[in-house]
């Protein structure tokens, strides 16, 4: 029987920013995962997102394929993605729908694909509202992560680290689970064999936040990107994931607060866009 991961609970509404940043720092060093509560995204809105999603995914495949993913936006069918390139499976047993930025650069927002308004009159409004709310929560969180790394709280915003989608920070929402039921497993020591997997339990109303591979690289492996995998349940399950990424032209290089003469940078600088494109090729065949 797997152990249960004791992930820290971070309160995004806490007025004590320094204490909160210190808690985030410890969480990212120890686990690379934490729960986020009081994030400002209403449960009613999240329920609406899942309701709209269920309607879309219940369509016949040929209808969904009309919105096949282009430029990382739109629908992907079962087995079209393979997040673990070393896996022997034919692909991931899931289908997804990707939405990118909904505000700002028109060249980016116009890449989004939307189901027919005739069939789904409230789909677009629901998804855009949710995206804006999640972005607001993400900006608050990333400023605390900057403080946790002994940086100015607007550091990541100044270097262009608040583009979307996909990347160095992810907020997850898994609704409809019993408190005692595990969502998925995490493995803190990804290079050790055999791997020890720990259960992650559901906390009502909380997001689960994890550090991505790019942030691990950025912090010289000080913050950890932890292996994780979804628990099979034998039934349909819907989830919502929101990713924060640097601007494609942002240069990701070891932060000054994460290296020293005794701990030099482990990775050379790289453009965020180049790094992500390489990862997409491995995972999605694009």
From TrEMBL:
The keyword Metal-binding applies. SUPFAM superfamilies: Clavaminate synthase-like. Keywords: Iron, Metal-binding, Oxidoreductase. Residues 140-246 form the Fe2OG dioxygenase domain. One of its GO terms (molecular function) is dioxygenase activity. PROSITE patterns: FE2OG_OXY. Signal peptide: none annotated. It holds the Pfam family DIOX_N. The keyword Oxidoreductase applies. Belongs to the iron/ascorbate-dependent oxidoreductase family. This is Fe2OG dioxygenase domain-containing protein. It comes from Salix dunnii.
